[in-house]
């Protein structure tokens, strides 16, 4: 996929089977967008490596002091596109399962139909929750727009009374009232902006490795430091023979933020006190709101000779007990396997329990026929 770099904006294509440039720039100056050919670096997992959650209640950002309405508009549009894509993906999966149920009612066993029906109900519950979540975000955004219009009106009143003659008592009282309203609407916008930020879900980031195009050599050690608001992720890796890479951490969960950008710093560890900063980039994150996992690549240095590959999965909810979108979609492969397994034998062949039941019914019919029942 492709992501734009601050301050550029660019729409991405959400696919996991291809890797494009997640171009970054040095924090001191902007650079033009760079493309990247696909690559698949090999990453080995160390023992005990688990997904980390770099946030708790203390990591959540406090309400901002100054609202950012233009930035919120961009994040809201990207969020709506991501939620719409989520709904479309699960709606297609629901239609697919419903079709399988209709086609397999006559030639499948009850266990298989029960499994399909259970998956259909699970996806339906997830869709209802997703629709409710989208409606809640719309309500928050509408309330935010109302407060923004009131704030703009109060700002115009303050400007008008300030430029006029403030000598009269009525003018001073009107100016004080308009200033009070402007402050109140600003605080309301900040609170709504913070509340909307808490509804953005989670970014599950998985480390896939570095690509150096003959820059990476066996024995090289790198340290990657990611900063996203108050959230931090530091990991170290080593390049081994056969281009294998070993990292002490592979997965991280970040809370999406409205006004912050993802900062990535890569350092090459040459000796105990000799560390060389390869690159320090800042990247846009609003394009990561997508229904399917995305493989992105970050240009670490100016020439693009060192790139960082990441797999990003967006979860619209930040609860551990929520039904995973990937689990609902990935069940289709299991269903297809079971479907093919059941169809290998004739569907009309009764099981042993069914045969015993048919025999008992037949015997009861004979007894009734001969008057011995």
UniProtKB/TrEMBL annotation:
Domain FAM65 N-terminal: 16-362
Cellular component per GO, a single term: cytoplasm
Signal peptide (UniProt feature, chain positions): none
Pfam families: PL48
Family, as annotated: Belongs to the RIPOR family.
Protein name: RIPR1 regulator
UniProt source species: Erythrocercus mccallii
């Amino acid at each position: 996929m492709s992501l734009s770099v601050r301050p550029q904006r660019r729409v991405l294509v959400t696919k996991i089977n291809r890797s494009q440039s997640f171009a970054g720039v040095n924090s001191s100056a902007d650079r033009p967008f760079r493309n990247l050919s696909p690559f698949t670096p090999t990453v080995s997992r160390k023992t005990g490596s688990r997904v980390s959650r770099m946030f708790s209640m203390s990591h959540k950002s406090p309400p901002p002091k100054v609202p950012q309405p233009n930035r919120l508009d961009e994040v809201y549009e990207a969020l709506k596109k991501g939620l719409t894509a989520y709904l479309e993906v699960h709606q297609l999966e629901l239609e697919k399962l419903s079709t399988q149920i209709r086609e397999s009612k006559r030639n499948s066993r009850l266990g298989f139909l029960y499994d399909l029906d259970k998956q259909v109900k699970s996806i339906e519950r997830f869709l209802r929750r997703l629709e409710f979540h989208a409606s809640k975000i719309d309500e928050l955004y509408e309330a935010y727009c109302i407060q923004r219009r009131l704030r703009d009106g109060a700002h115009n009143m303050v400007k008008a009374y300030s430029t006029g003659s403030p000598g009269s008592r009525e003018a001073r009282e009107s100016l004080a009232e308009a200033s009070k309203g402007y402050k109140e609407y600003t605080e309301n916008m900040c609170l709504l902006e913070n509340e909307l930020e808490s509804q953005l879900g989670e970014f599950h980031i998985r480390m896939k490795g570095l690509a150096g195009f003959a820059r990476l050599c066996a024995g090289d050690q790198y340290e990657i430091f990611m900063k996203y608001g108050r959230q931090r992720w530091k990991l170290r890796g080593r390049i081994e023979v056969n281009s294998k890479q070993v990292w002490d951490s592979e997965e991280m969960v970040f809370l999406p933020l409205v006004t912050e950008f993802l900062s990535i710093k890569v350092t090459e560890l040459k000796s105990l006190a000799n560390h060389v900063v390869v690159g320090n980039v800042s990247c846009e994150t609003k394009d990561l709101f997508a229904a399917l996992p995305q493989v992105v690549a970050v240009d670490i240095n100016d020439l693009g000779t060192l790139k960082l590959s990441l797999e990003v999965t967006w979860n619209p909810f930040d609860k551990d007990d929520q039904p995973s979108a990937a689990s609902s979609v990935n069940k289709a492969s299991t269903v297809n396997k079971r479907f093919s397994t059941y169809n290998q034998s004739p569907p009309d062949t009764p099981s042993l329990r069914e045969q015993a039941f048919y025999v008992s019914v037949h015997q009861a019919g004979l007894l009734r026929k001969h008057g011995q029942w």
